[in-house]
Amino acid sequence: MRARILIVLLALMISAPACKKKKAGGPAPAPTPEPEARVEVLMIPSKVDAVDFRILFSTGSVDDPEGKEGLTALTAGLMAEGGTASHTYPELLDILYPMAAEVHVQVDRELTVFMARVHRDHLDEFVPLIAEIIVKPRFDEKAFSRLRADALNHIRKELRMASDEQLSIQALDTWIHEDHPYGHVVAGTVKGLESITLADVKAHWAQVFSRDRLVVGLAGAVDETLSGRMRVAFEPLPEKGAPAVEIPDPEPISGIQVRIIEKNTDSTAITMGYPLDVRRDHADYHALWLAQSALGEHRQSSGRLFQTIREERGLNYGDYAYIEPYVNHGRTTKPTLNIARSHHTFSLWIRPVQHKHRLFTVRLMFHTLGTFIEKGLDQDELDRVRGFLAGYTAIFEESLDRRLGYALDDLFYGADEPFLSSSRAAMQGLSLDQVNAAIKKHVRAGDCKVVIVTRDGEALKKELGEGVAAVIEYDTPKPDEVHEADKQVVGFDPGFKADLIEVVPVESLFEE
Q1: DSSP classification of residue 266
Q2: What is the pTM of this model?
Q3: Domains of the chain
Q4: How large is the average pLDDT for residues 142-160?
C-alpha cells in the first residue's frame, strides 16, 4: 500500500474570529467566523531574513491515468510556468524579478513540490503570488503546447540521445517496475504525452492538487502569522482529491535479466538493480546504508567499486551504489530531497567505459559485488565508513531549505526523529556482525536486472550468453597485482543465461 503522508503541525496559528463593526443605532451583528483552516503547515523558524517555501503535494507520476502518462508532470509544469488567472507568465516573471524570487517545481513518483525563496520584506507581495500559481493557474493554451513539446523533446532527444548514463538509469528503473505504477518515467511516454489535452490538465489539477494532499513547508523568518496566511491562501483548493493510488510491491526478479539498448554511441553505460524491501523505517536500513557507502558512495572515491574499476584500472570516471532513488545523478553530490517513495531499489551505476572494455567491466562489476557479499566489511573499513558518514552527512542539511526538505520527507516515512541526526546515532551503535548480516540478507548479485547502453548489441549478447572470456588490454601499464586479480575476472560467470538477454532499439524506449 502507498505510504500516506503523516500530517504533523510544528506550529499552530491562534487567532480570534473576525467581527463586523457595530453600526450606530442598530444591534451588533453576530460574529462572522473565518473559514475553517484545513491546510497543514510545517514550520522551521530561524533568525534569518529570508523564507524558504516547499509546498508539497502527495501526487506524482503514480497518479497518471493509463494512456496519459506524463499528465501530473505536465500539469505541475503548467502551474509553475503557465501564468495565473491574473498574470501571464512573462508578467509573473517581471513581478518576481525585483524580489529576486523564482518558483520551481519538482515532480517525482509520489510527491510534487513547489519551491521558492524570498526575502521577508517581500512576503506581502509574494504570498498571494505563489498561492495564485497553485490555486488559480492560467491554463494557457500556448504555454500548454510549449511545455508538452518540451516534454516530448526531453524523451526523444535528451533522454534517448543525449546522456547514455541517464538513459541507462531511467531504463533500469522503469524495467524493474514494469506493469507497476512506477513503470514509466516521470516525464511520461511519447504516446501518453501526445494524447494529453488542456482539458485533461484542468481536470487532473482538480483531482490531485487538493488540500488533503497538501503540506505547506516554511523555513526561516516564519511565524504563526505567516502560517495563518498560508492556510487561508490555499483554502480555495478542492478539499479532497481523487483516492490515493495503491502501490503494490514490485514483481520479484528471477535470474540475471539483461536488456541491451542498441544505440550508436561512443561508449558503454551499465546499470544493475532489483527491488529492495528496506526503507528508512526498516530495522536494517542503517546497516545497509553503511554497506552501500563502503561499496560505492555517490560521487565519492573511497568505495570498493570506484577503487576497483576506476582507481586501480582506469576504466571509467566513477562507480557507485544506492539503496534509495537518487535523481540528478551527475549534477550533485547531495541527495535531491522530496523524492521519497513507498518502494526502493538497490542499484549500481557504472559510468561509461570504452566498448572494448564493456564485457570485462560487466564481469568485474559482478565479481566485485560477489566478493563484497561473501566477505563483507572488516572492522577498520566499518570504522572508516562510519566516521566518513558522520561528517559527510552534515553537509546534507547545511541550508534551511534542505532541513525543510528532510523534515517533509520525515513526514512521508513516519519518522519520530529527524532523519540525519538519528541516522548518525543509529550507525554509531551498529556492530560489524550486524552490518555484514544485513549485506548477506539484502545485497545480491543474482535475481537482478542489468541495462547496458551500447552499440553492436547483438555481439555483446552473444558474448554474455556464451560465456566468452573477457579479454582486457589496458592503455597504460598496471601493477602486477592488478593483472593477477584480472585472472579471476576474465572467465568469471555471474550466471548469465542466453534466453534472459535481449537487445532493444533505443527508439523503442519510453514510447508507450
Answers
A1: S
A2: 0.91
A3: 40-234 (3.30.830.10), 256-508 (3.30.830.10)
A4: 97
